[in-house]
Amino acid sequence: MDQGTQNRKGSRYAVLCSVVTSMISIIFGYDTGVMSGALIFIREELGISDTQQEVLAGILNVCALVGSLVAGRTADYIGRRYTISLASILFLVGSVLMGYGPNYGLVMAGRCVAGVGVGFALLIAPVYSAEISSAEARGFVASLPELCIGIGILLGYIVNYLLGKLPLKLGWRLMLGLAAVPSLALAVGILAMPESPRWLVVQGHLAKAKNVLLQVSDSEEEAELRFREIKSAAGIDEDCTEEMVKGSRNSSGEGVWKELIWRPSYPVRRMLIAAVGIHFFEHATGIEAVMLYSHRIFKKAGVTSKDKLLLATIGIGVTKVSCLIMATFYLDRIGRRRLLFISTTGMIFSLTLLGFSLTMVEKSHEKLEWALVLSLVFTYVYVGFFNLGLAPVTWVYGSEIFPLRLRAQGASIGVAVNRLTNATISMTFITIYNAITIGGVFFLFAGSSVLAWLFFYFFLPETKGKALEEMEMVFSKKSQRNATAETETGQNV
C-alpha cells in the first residue's frame, strides 16, 4: 500500500460512514418510488377515489413535517446515531403495517408511521454526513443521502415493474412491505458507526470526539486542527478539561429556538432565510408531481398499458440516479451556486416545453406522436436538470450552513418547510390539473423555477470549501454579489 493511499484512510472511512448512514435515504426513496406504482394497484383493489389517492400519497410528507420538527431536538438530545436507528425502527413498523394492509385505513396508518421516520431521516442523514466529513469533501459526502434517495426511488420503480405481474392482492403489499428488511438491518448496523464528533464536543465528550476525528481525518495534524476549530465554534476554551465542559454546558438543545427565530443575529437570520427558501423551492418547482404521478403524466401524454407506464417510470429513476452521481463529483469542484443556476435554468426550459407538449396532446382530438415523444423527453430532461443541482445542493446546503449549536434544529426547520411544500404539491396535483389542465400545472412550475433562480442569486452565498465553523463569517457579508466577487478574486490570485 503506497503512502498516498495510507494518507486517505480517514476520509475514506468518513465516506464509508456516510454510505452506511445513507441507507436510511435508500429506504425513504424506495418508499416514494414504490408508492408511485403501488397506487395503480391499490386503486384497483380497494376502489379508492382520486382524493383518497392524493391523501395517501401526500400524508407521508404531512407526518414527515412533524417528524422533522421533533428530530432536531431528538438529535441534540440522544445523538445522531441513535436518531438514525430510531428512524429505521419507524420505517420498519410503517412498512409492516402497509405490507399487511387489509384496508385503506391500515395502509394510511402505516404510511403515517413511515412518514415520521422520513422526517427523522431527511434531517439526520445529511447532518451526520456533513459533521463527520472534512470541508474539502463535504459536498460529496453530504450529497450521498440525496443520491441514495434516487437509488431507492429507482429500486422502487423496478420492484413495481417486477411485482406488478403478481396477483393483485399480493403484488402491491409485497411492494410496500419489502422495506422492512433493510430497515431492521440499519437499525442495528448503524450502532457500529462512530458518533458525530461535533455532537460529542457539544456534549462535553472531548476524548471520544478526538478519537473519532483521528478515525475520519487523514493525519493527526488534520484531526487536531479540526478538533480545535470545533471546540472554538462550540465556545469551549482551549484549556478546559472534559469535566469542566460537562459541568458547565447545556447540551440538549434548549434555548435554540429563541436564537433561531425570536432573536436571531444578522448571519443566523440570513441562514434561516436561505435554508427555508431552498427547501421551499426544491418542491415548489414540481418534482414530487413527476415522481409520484409520472404514470398519470405519461398516460395523459398517450402511454396506455400498465407495463409501458411502469417501464417509463423506470426511465425517470435511471435519469435521476445518473445525474445525482454526476452532481456528487461536481459539488466540491464547481460549487453550490453555479450548480443551482445550471439546474434551475434547465428546469425552466424543460418545464416550459413539457407544459407546451402536454397542452398540445390535451387539445388535440387525435394522437400526436411528436407531442408524446416531447412529453417523455422533457419529463426526463426536467428530472435530469433537477437532480444535477437543486436536489443534492438543497440537502448539502441546509445541513452545512448553521452554526454547531443551531445545526440540528435549524436544519429541522428547513426540512419541515420541505415536507410541507412536498405534501401540498402531492396532495393537490390531481385537483389542480383537473382545474387548469395538466399542461397549465407545468407552466406554473416553470414560473416557480424562475422565482427560485432569482432567490438563489440574491440570498445564497457560496459555501464550497468553507469549514462548518466559518459559516457565520460567510453569512455576515452584507452583499451577496460583493461576497461572490471577493471569492472569485481570491481564486484568481
Which structural traits does this protein have?
493 residues; mainly alpha; Growth Hormone, Chain: A; 0% strand; globular; disordered C terminus; carbohydrate transmembrane transporter activity
Describe what this molecule looks like in 3D.
InterPro entries: MFS_dom, MFS_sugar_transport-like, MFS_trans_sf, STP/PLT_plant, Sugar/inositol_transpt, Sugar_transporter_CS. Residues 17-464 form the Major facilitator superfamily (MFS) profile domain. This protein has one domain (14-200, 255-481): Up-down Bundle (Growth Hormone, Chain: A), CATH 1.20.1250.20. It is 82% helix and 0% strand. The protein has 24 helices and no strands. α4 (50-78) runs parallel beside α6, α15 packs parallel to α21 and α17 (306-334) runs parallel beside α19. The longest helix is centred in the last third of the chain and has 30 residues, at 407-436. Residues 1-6 and 479-493 have low confidence and may be disordered.
